[in-house]
Design brief:
23 strands; 8-stranded mixed beta sheet; Rossmann fold
Length: 661
């Protein structure tokens, strides 16, 4: 690093420190950036200079005050000789008016909260990440849009507090009969929220409520729902583990906290509960739907919703709060030590600085890395980016950058349904996402002019709902002869008896121009848990489907040995296909379409013994294995060849084996 580069970093760091330390006063509006503001002067008020929200300045009651000052304004209102008490009354009316336009002012001047870990009550002054989050909330409110937010966060900055008090602000200031739901993973989380709301309401100043004391009472003798007086707004508390407590039929706002921890049960999935709550909200201005959580792995409901939000495939605005925006996370550097510190920064730390972290924050992070040596745990607790937040294993096989690149080409399948007697039958409305379904991105080309265009692979799972899934994948290799790459065309996924699975694969392979069918056979040959004689099944298929993959060499065939059908995954072939898939992801050697496959890639790890590979405990890798075998076969099988029209009717498929490969 040159001296010029080093000095540039130190100078930029000083600018960031000055910005962080710049004055913030929600009473005057100085440093408030959540909404557009203008500096104004109103002569005669106890506080004459303020940075007010632009929307408030345009208010018909406020604009004359700014133009004429308090004394002249009061004379215009009929007070020929205004007294100090008249000015104070006008000031209180002005402050109540400001509560409507300025959440930061409302929070500071009316909301009393507990100062965490210090055993005292304080007024609610927003910190830096809270102000960043508030800007997203206010942007939607001011635009008159539903306030739909998905919040992925680092720890310990008060995101839940802000969400809850923002909803309370809407109930107390903007709407009557505007009911809310607060749902956590466990009841304790909801109880903490209830205590916070009670404190704010019990300490609410009389001047802000026109002299009427705010109270709450149980709604219709229920334990989990309380009604706020006056205003007639209700808030209900519940948990994902006891969803029956959430029975509000008329809600306009919902705050779902730590959704990443919500677990699926035999009777209900997290998305079912979320849909039942959000489905009660009609939408429109001042409605609120907030899902927030620290990231807890990939492939779960929270992660899927986050990905959809970042790709614009749902109505949620994604908000991510990185650790380095939290002022608590910093460690001072001696004034004369900046140069040495900058020179000692590694590439990752330089990347943190490029993201916006100060050198003091990076210095703190160094200590935290020593404290939490497992990188993936550190990323989960203190993420710098959303991609880091969703790390879920420290021994991942597929680099996160490779998976992210593959995810860019994933799209929802145009067709979801099944194939029956060679016909593609679409699913009924509401059945999308059910298991035992076929997702299709590319339908078979009935006028295909290529031989060996398609390949179908099968990873065999179990039959019961708790066992591994089975997966059938199709690749279209049409582009390969011209230097292109194969593309995922279809995926069947679910639980099914093994003989039905095998014939389902045959049916799909036939639909795709009698594709080479590669069935992973070792599971079926060795398992005895579910009673299938798969060797018999494969032999039966071979008698009726000619393009079945065989691993028997030509020499063995000449020696009279019977054919061994299917791809055998063992300690030799599994690393082979997985390593090839790593290369394929790195070099863009195929086009991924299936988003759930990328989730499995994120959860595929090297086990602690350093030899075995598989999904993180409690997850599945059927799509990974089907993809690995598929892409390896695509590149280790003769390329598709064009056929002339007069040869199409007489073309014949041939048996592909390891010997021919």
């Amino acid at each position: 690093m040159t001296e010029t580069e080093k000095n540039h970093i130190i100078q930029e760091n000083e600018k960031r420190r000055m910005l962080i330390c710049s004055p913030y006063n929600p009473i005057t509006g100085e440093g408030s950036t959540s909404v557009p503001r203008e500096h104004i002067i109103i002569k005669g008020f106890p506080l004459e200079e303020m940075n007010l929200p632009t929307a408030m300045i345009a208010d018909d009651d406020v604009l004359p005050l700014i133009e004429h000052g308090t004394v002249e304004y009061l004379r215009m209102q009929g007070h020929n000789n205004p007294e100090q008490r008249h000015i104070l009354q006008l000031w209180l009316a002005f402050c109540r008016k400001r509560l409507k336009y300025d959440f930061e002012y409302w929070a500071k001047s009316t909301a009393t909260i507990s100062d965490k870990g210090k055993g005292r009550d304080i007024s609610f002054t927003l910190n830096r990440p809270q102000r960043q989050y508030l800007k997203a909330l206010e942007t939607l409110r001011i635009a008159g849009r539903p306030i739909d937010i998905i919040l992925c966060k680092a720890r310990q900055w008060g995101g839940s507090t802000l969400t809850q008090l923002y909803m309370l602000w809407i109930q107390l200031i903007h709407r009557n009969n505007w009911n809310s739901v607060i749902c956590g993973d466990i009841e304790k989380q909801s109880s903490i929220v209830a205590g916070m709301l009670s404190k704010v309401i019990n300490h609410y100043p009389l001047w802000a409520s026109n002299g009427r004391r705010l109270t709450t009472s149980p709604f219709q003798s229920t334990r989990n729902t309380r009604i706020i007086h006056p205003g007639n707004c209700r808030y209900s508390l519940g948990s994902s583990q006891k969803p029956d407590s959430l029975r509000s039929e008329d809600i306009s706002m919902a705050h779902l906290t730590e959704v990443g921890l919500w677990k699926a049960t035999a009777g209900r999935k997290p998305e079912d509960l979320v849909q039942s709550i959000f489905g009660s909200i009609a939408g429109g201005a001042y409605t609120v739907k907030v899902m927030e959580s620290t990231a807890k792995g990939v492939g779960n409901f929270f992660h899927r919703t986050w990905i959809e939000a970042t790709e614009g495939r749902n109505n949620f605005t994604p908000v991510f709060i990185p650790w380095y925006t939290i002022d608590l996370y910093n460690k001072p550097i001696e004034d004369n030590g900046y140069g040495a510190f900058v020179e000692s920064m590694n590439d990752y730390e330089k990347g943190l600085f490029d993201l916006g972290a100060t050198l003091e924050a990076i210095n703190w992070y160094r200590d935290k890395r020593r404290e939490i040596p497992d990188e993936w745990r550190l990323f989960s607790e203190f993420p710098s980016t959303a991609a880091e937040a969703f790390q879920s294993t420290g021994r991942r096989v597929f680099r996160i950058s490779y998976v992210q690149e593959a995810r860019k080409t994933c799209v929802p399948p145009p067709f979801i349904g099944d194939i029956v007697n060679g016909r593609f039958i679409p699913a009924h409305p509401g059945e999308h996402g059910n298991e035992n379904s076929l997702s299709v991105w590319l339908m078979p080309d009935k006028e295909s002019a290529c031989r060996n265009r398609y390949i179908v692979t099968v990873d065999v799972g179990g039959v019961s709902k708790k066992s591994d899934y089975s997966c059938i994948l199709v690749a279209d290799r049409m582009a390969m002869p011209g230097g292109g790459v194969p593309e995922i065309a279809a995926c069947w996924h679910g639980h099914i008896e093994h003989d039905k699975l095998a014939w389902k694969a045959v049916e799909i392979a036939r639909a795709y121009d009698n594709a080479l069918l590669v069935i992973e056979a070792n599971t079926l040959e060795t398992e005895g848990t579910e009673g299938d004689n798969f060797e018999y099944i494969l032999n039966e298929i071979a008698g009726k489907y000619s393009n079945l993959y065989s691993r028997t060499s030509q020499q063995e065939i000449r020696q009279g040995r019977p054919r061994r059908w299917g791809f055998h995954t063992n300690p030799s072939t599994k690393p082979m296909v997985i390593n090839f898939l790593i290369k394929a992801l790195r070099d863009g050697l195929y086009i991924e379409r299936c988003l759930p496959t990328t989730y499995e890639l994120d959860l595929y790890e090297l086990k602690e013994n350093g030899k075995e590979m598989g999904a993180v405990e409690g997850n599945h890798d059927d799509r990974v294995m089907a993809t690995a075998i598929l892409i390896w076969t695509c590149y280790n099988t003769p390329l598709p060849t064009r056929i002339t029209d007069d040869k199409r009717s007489s073309k014949r498929t041939r048996i592909i084996s390891e010997a021919s490969i």
